[in-house]
Amino acid sequence: AYQKSDMNEEAEEVLEKLRDFDELTEEQKEKLEALDSRKVYKDILINFYKTGVIGEEDTIYLYKEVNDYNSIDDDLLYSYHMKLMDITGDNKDEILVYQRRKDGDSDGVLWVFEVRDGKAVTLCLKLCDYNSSFILNNNTILFNYNKNDVESDEVYSYNSVVSRFEQLDKDDDKVNAAINMAESNKIKLSMPDIDTLLNPDNIETSVNKMDVSNIVYNDKKKHSGTSKEYKEVYREFLINYNAEGAIPVKFKLLDITGDGKDELIIKDYKDGVDDYCIYEDIDGKAYKIFDEYGNVFEVYNDNIILVESFYDGETSPMFACFTYDKDISRFYRNKNGGYRNGDQEYLIDMLNKKAKLTGSEITTELTPSNVYDALE
Predict the structure, then answer these.
(1) Cα four-point dihedral sign 33, 209, 43, 9
(2) Residue 263, in any domain of the structure
(3) Domain count for the chain
(4) CA distances (Å), 232 to each of 60, 224, 268, 374, in order?
(5) Does the entry feature the keyword Coiled coil, yes or no (predicted)?
(6) Are 51 and 110 contained in the same domain?
(7) Is the pTM higher than 0.85?
(8) For residues 72 and 35, what is the distance between their CA atoms, to the nearest angstrom?
(9) Is 4 contained in some domain?
(10) Which of 216, 203, 217, 213 is nearest to 5 (CA)?
(11) Domain range for 261
(12) Which pLDDT tens digit goes with each residue over 150-204?
């Protein structure tokens, strides 16, 4: 009632008291989390404004001056704009951030974040054309629409199993539907609509306008219930894998999520560097739960993954660390390393750990005989 009357201070006082209760039912906890949404969203966005970090993303860690920055306002290249809107159909607003160049070039990067269990989860990160990218009424995203060149169109649809937007194949019915919607102007949001400059005052105003009355916090994953032996799933996937490069694709089976069941790790050499993908059997289908390029790839006994992406020849390599998050059925990036104070010490500590798997140990070539031997 306080929230509906915009009496936010009074609402926060009540929520503070409710958080102290230990014996809440699951339904009561979900309701409390829903009512608490405004505080959670504000905390996430204010932290992003101050640090450049939001969930899995760090927007300024590769600037050598990052340790002198006080907020994202100090970013010399980009400005950040925001919108809160439900684009997955769950009655809960996602956080949309559009990063634009300050030099006048309007094309930029779209981020879409879901707020889940108090943290931001990246649903989409995509470089896109400012004037020809749209979020449509059926909660798909059409990037780089060009009615004269259908090959440039890219359509992404939300996949609730792995909590992200994924690009659809050109022959998918949803692609034609998305193009028809764009031509019929059935557009929920265009990039110019993400026009609220991200700063504390605008965060406060935007979050206070959120309607939290219809939020239901539950598991949005839509599992089919299909049961198939996981080795059979991986066997079919590998036999049909499209290996395009001249260097043979390598693969490895190993449990790196801690569920007692092997995941499938594929090393494929692309664009001059190794690409590591990890697949997990979910409901009888191989879902991609990790995809990163790197010169260094290590998995540790605690199932943390380290990927070192490049070395700039001076002081700082770029790296990232990932842990498996069962709530989103994929790996979550919990550390981006670059020029921030402490990053190099963090990397050295990680590299001093004993790895249970390194990229150099993924040596089995993807051939029919090796697939059958590994998955007999």
Answers:
(1) negative
(2) yes
(3) 2
(4) 43, 17, 22, 11
(5) yes
(6) yes
(7) yes
(8) 29
(9) no
(10) 213
(11) 230-374
(12) 677 899 999 999 999 999 999 899 999 999 999 999 999 999 999 999 999 999 9
